[in-house]
Amino acid sequence: MVIMTHKIAVIPGDGIGIEVINEGVKVLNCVSQLDPKIQFEFTHFPWGCEFYSKTGRMMDDDGIERLSKFDGIFLGAVGYPGVPDHISLWGLLLRIRKSFDQYVNVRPVKLLKGAPCPLKEKSPKDINMIFIRENSEGEYAGSGSWLYRDKPNEVVIQDGVFSRVGCERIIRYAFELARTEKKSLTSISKGNALNYSMVFWDQIFQQLSQEYPDVETHSYLVDAAAMLMITKPERFEIVVTSNLFGDILTDLGAAIAGGMGLAAGANLNPEGNFPSMFEPIHGSAPDIAGKQLANPLATVWSASQLLEFFGYKEWAARLIDAIEYLLVEQKTLTPDLGGTAKTADVGDAVVAYLQKHFA
Question: What is the required cofactor set for this protein (predicted)?
Answer without folding.
Answer: Mn(2+); Mg(2+)
